Structures are given as structure tokens and as C-alpha cells.
Amino acid sequence: MPSLEDELFPSTPGKFKIDRANTMNRQFHRCFASTSTMFLWALFLVALTASYLSFQSFVYTGSRYFTASWGGIQWEQQIRHSAQIHRSNGMSVLVTGAAGFVGSHVSLALKKRGDGVVGIDNFNNYYDPSLKRARKSLLNNQGIFIVEGDINDARLIAKLFDTVAFTHVMHLAAQAGVRYAMENPHSYVHSNIAGLVTLLEACKSANPQPSVVWASSSSVYGLNEKVPFSETDRTDQPASLYAATKKAGEEITHTYNHIYGLSITGLRFFTVYGPWGRPDMAYFSFTRNILQGKPITVYRGKDRADLARDFTFIDDIVKGCVGSLDTSGKSTGSGGKKRGPAPYRIFNLGNTSPVTVPTLVSILERHLKVKAKRKFVDMPGNGDVPFTHANISLAQRELGYKPTTDLATGLKKFVKWYLSYYGYNHGKDVN
Ligand SMILES: O=C(O)[C@H]1O[C@H](OP(=O)(O)OP(=O)(O)OC[C@H]2O[C@@H](n3ccc(=O)[nH]c3=O)[C@H](O)[C@@H]2O)[C@H](O)[C@@H](O)[C@H]1O
């Protein structure tokens, strides 16, 4: 049975063990023989600890200061310039997630008609950040400034509101993706719950308060079987953590409307697709794989039923977002105090004509002129729902929302963009 000493010095032969112990004992006695030496040692250790702690705090403060990529007179000027309104009765909008798919499109549309736009985006690497950078360049060229930062950074958000009296916030920053929630659940809580609250805190305290329009999701309908989905249908059976955080967002925004008088509009987007889209989504990854000659996985539901989505083209979604901003009504509070009731609205923004996933693949094959290698797999229990289908009559009535792009037409535009952006041989082994 090896002794403790054997374990600490496993390869030391017995004789040396005793010698080493004796030597250590002698050294110990020599060093700490007198009380005064011990006192000096203690003093030295205390001084060492104190200097280490103060160095740590210097490094922390310093790194916070040196890594801040925002602030300063020039930065404020850029923000104010970007927020300038160039039409009568225009608005100045803070767009969160501005380098994202929907965020970049909405920002451009607002800027084009003369509204002031300031973007914020954290450029995270959930999908290829170079695509976000490319969208940012596009926006910069149109005079839109994008702040690189996180909506969880309360100081940054407060600074933005100090710099510009935003009339509206278009909140599109989020952790998207239904299935990724099983891999990285905390990123959903971070962005879709904590980030949302940080943003709403800033909105509530702003004077004047902005009106808030934000992205909820069709996924809140979860396992609901009644079709088409209407805003009054039950939304208490989410099938994924993503859906649960979006549903939580609807409840959280309701409390800010109720307590602080913030005008809130939540938009339930239905599987948005189009040029400059998200590479994690099926239509995008299918396109990449088809062109690269790789197989695509097509999920099937119970009894091998095809899955279906109410795919909605980006231009239609942009119209719904802009219509929501235009009709949002004012927040009533100021400086954190409610002065009266404010609008609280929720709308479906879908296309009203679901298409099955195999049909989506056939359309892509036609546009790409390449055959797909389909691999059918039973839908894994990872948060997916079998179908979505929007009833949009409320949005039609209140926002004038009227989608005009069918899936074949929208995918044609997507494929055209994809080929011009990546080319035919992107990621293909050309040897
Ligand atoms: O409306 C929403 O609220 C959500 O829309 C989008 O989610 P989904 O509708 O799930 O889109 P998407 O991933 O493109 O899968 C489409 C279909 O392809 C099937 N699918 C998917 C991947 C695959 O490899 N195979 C497959 O068959 C899959 O089973 C599904 O039937 C957004 O990503 C999400 O952020 C949120 O905004």
C-alpha cells in the first residue's frame, strides 16, 4: 500500500525519502526559527496579496476602458448624423440586430424613405460573421452607422439614448434558430430574455420614451393544431426553448407596456427567407449543399407526413415592419413613469400559403438546375413543429400588410443573390 509520501514522490527510492524529509525539516526550522522572522514573512505575504489585488483591479478597469469600441465626440457625431431625419414627419429609429438578415433589410428601407437609422449589432459567430460584415458595409454605404455592441450592455444603450432622442426602436437582435437551442440554451436566455429586459429598461427610462416594435416568432404557436394560426390562439405549448424565450418576450413586453406606458408591437414572423438571408436556415443550407453535390436531410413528421412552413419573403416582412412602426402609436410615459395607457399589439406576419419542405427542395433544384441528393429522416425531437400557417387578417386590417411574393418567385431572387455573392463553386472541391 503506497504511503502519501510515495504518491507525492512516486519515483523516489526509500533512502532519499528520509533524507528529503530531514532536509525539509531542517530548512523549515532555519526559516521560521524566531517569531520575528515569522512576523516579517507574514507582513511580506500581506503586502504581496494587496499589490496583486490592486493590480487585478487596474487590469480590469483598464481593459474595460481600452476595449470599449464606443464613445467619444466623433462617435457621437456619427450617431447623430446617422439618426438625422430627412423627410417630414419622419422617425429616428434604433435598429437592434442591424447587421442581421431582417435588421439590415429594414434599416435600408427606413433610410431610403428618409428616416434616421442607427444600428447596433454584436456580430456574434452563430453563423459566418463575414456575411454580417458584408451587410454592414452595405448599410454604411447608405449612411447608416452600426454600433458594434451587445444589447446587454446597459451603459452603451443608455449612452445611445443620451445621444439621440429615438422616436422608435425596431428590436430585431435575438438568438434565432429553433434546433440550436438544444446545443446552446444559455445564448437564448442571454439575448432573448436578459438582452430584451436591458433594452426595455433603457426605453422605459428614456425621455421621451420610444415606441417599440420587436420580433416575436411563429414558433410561439408550438404544438397548436388549429390552423391557420390566429393571434388569439393558445401559445402556451412551446416546442423549443427558442419558442419559450419568444413567448416570454411577449409577456415581458406586456409588463413594460402595463407598468411604464411603453407602446409595444410584437411581430410573429413566419420562416422568413430571401437574399442576404441566414445560412443556418434550411433553404440556405440546402442551396449550399445542392451546389456542392452534398446530400440534404429532409425531415418527415408522424406517419412520414411532409413538414410544411408558411415561408415568408423578406420584402413582405419589411413592409410589415415598416407598417408597424408607422402605426405604432406613442408611448405615454417619461423618465420611467406611466402617464396613461399605451398600445400593446401582436401581429402574425406570414404568407398564408404553407409549402412542404420537399416542394421547397424541388423549387431550388429548378432554379439551381442541379439535382438534390435527398436523405429523408424522421423529424428528431429537437424543437421542430410539423407545420405553420398564418392568419394575417389582423395585420391586413391594422397595418395594410399584404404579402405578394410566392415561394417560387422569392427563391428565384434568393438563388440569384446567392450565386452573385458566393458563385457556383463556393466550397466545392474544384480539383
Ligand atoms: O418562423 C419562425 O418563427 C422560425 O422560422 C425559422 O425556423 P424554421 O421554420 O424551423 O426554419 P428552417 O430552420 O429553415 O426549417 C424549415 C423547415 O425545414 C426543415 N428542415 C430543416 C433543416 C434540415 O436540415 N432539414 C429539414 O427538413 C425543418 O424541419 C422545417 O420544417 C427560423 O430559423 C427561426 O429562427 C424562427 O424565426
TrEMBL record:
SUPFAM superfamilies in alphabetical order: NAD(P)-binding Rossmann-fold domains (SSF51735)
Domain of life of the source: Eukaryota
Keywords, alphabetical: Isomerase, Membrane, NAD, Transmembrane, Transmembrane helix
Domain annotation NAD-dependent epimerase/dehydratase: ranges: 93-327
Transmembrane segments: 31-55
Protein family (similarity comment): Belongs to the NAD(P)-dependent epimerase/dehydratase family.
PANTHER family named among the record's database cross-references: EPIMERASE-RELATED (PTHR43574)
The protein, known as: NAD-dependent epimerase/dehydratase domain-containing protein
Species of origin: Salix suchowensis
